[in-house]
Design a protein that fits this description.
By secondary structure, this protein is mainly α. It has 13 helices and no strands. Helix 6 packs across helix 9 and helix 7 packs across helix 8. The longest helix is centred in the middle third of the chain and has 18 residues.
């Protein structure tokens, strides 16, 4: 019974706004050991606290090392493996941004913690890549508009795509659009 209470400590310590901000990390179990400041002194806690929208990056670490990463897991080998996972999953410029975020967290703590990686900045270096603009012509958009999907799933995908295409909203924003947003 005591362990159950300690795993729910975040409910008492986080404000409702913080619970909303960190909802993804809470759902994935990263807050199971949350106990205020001490939790934020581990790598995964520090990273999630600073970048709550990047929980998938901690998932990549977890995939590589088998658990949520602690400071002692920040080795050159582990960082190389995580970078390979990032390279396989994200666009090059996104990898560059993510590596910069990881570097910033490590650099911030490096002086006060004993971090095994001696060359984390070099290991996580990623080059900037020129972005290539890709777009649809008016004719291609017209063909998609005229397409009549046969399944509910395809109709939904077409609607979301057309919203993205015609109003320039991101996929995540289109999913949250409602009649209230249209007035």
């Amino acid at each position: 019974m005591t362990q159950l209470l300690s795993t729910r400590r975040w409910m008492d310590l986080l404000t409702p706004e913080q619970q909303k901000t960190y909802s993804s990390a809470i759902r994935k179990g990263y807050f199971a050991t949350y106990d205020g400041y001490r939790w934020r002194h581990e790598f995964y806690g520090a990273f999630i606290w600073k970048h709550p929208g990047r929980v998938k990056i901690i998932d990549k670490f977890k995939q590589v090392i088998g658990r949520a990463p602690l400071w002692e897991d920040i080795t050159d080998d582990n960082l190389r493996d995580v970078k390979e996972e990032l390279d396989a999953s994200y666009a090059p410029n996104s990898v560059r941004t993510i590596c910069a975020e990881i570097n910033a967290i490590i650099r911030e703590i490096a002086e006060s913690k004993d971090i095994p990686s001696m060359s984390y900045a070099r290991v996580l270096r990623a080059k900037k890549v020129v972005v290539q603009s890709v777009f649809l012509t008016d004719e291609e958009i017209r063909k998609i508009h005229e397409y009549r999907p046969k399944t509910v799933r395809r109709r939904h995908a077409k609607r979301i795509f057309m919203l993205e295409c015609l109003c320039g909203a991101r996929f995540s924003d289109c999913l949250r659009l409602s009649p209230v947003n249209l007035s």
